[in-house]
Amino acid sequence: MEERTTIRLEQYEGFLIKRLNNKVNGTLIRTFSEKYGITASQWGVMVILYDHPGMTSKEIQNIADIKVSSASGILKRMLKKKLLYKKTLSKDHRASLLYLTEYSKKLVPSLINEANEFHAKMFSNFTDHERENFRFLLQKVYNNMK
After folding, report:
1. Residue 94 within any structural domain of the chain
2. Cα separation, 74 vs 38, whole angstroms
3. How remote is the C-alpha of 77 from its chain's centroid?
4. Where in the sequence is the domain holding 86, given as residue range(s)?
5. What CATH number is attached to the domain comprising 72?
6. Whole-prediction pTM value?
7. Nearest-CA neighbor of 56 among 100, 96, 89?
8. What is the pLDDT of residues 37-77, one digit of tens each?
9. Which residues of the chain form beta strands (DSSP E)?
């Protein structure tokens, strides 16, 4: 009789990353959605524009690492919800710069506080060094996948 090798999903880092992503989305992003009506993607765009107002959709796509079709839908919904507004560039009417509305600018600090509280809980048993190493290793894995 052939001996079977026992395989546990937990031995695959990709599975652990996916499981963690599900937990984050199931907790933090649900809080954003329920309290503020914001999706994970919208949160990302808001943080980008909070720090760098006046970006093109292409610049946002590159920073957030999202596809053109996804970015287009996200930005259209955000414009419709009045989370963003755009200014058309005078020399090229096809290009426009995106900005947070006053409402969004006031909302971002609350979202950041929620995220900080969530991350403090998530990493409560990590030292600062362990957390820094964790971020470094995640970025290293991400870079391997480019």
Report:
1. yes
2. 11
3. 16
4. 22-114
5. 1.10.10.10
6. 0.82
7. 96
8. 999 889 999 999 999 999 999 999 999 988 888 899 999 99
9. 84-88, 96-100
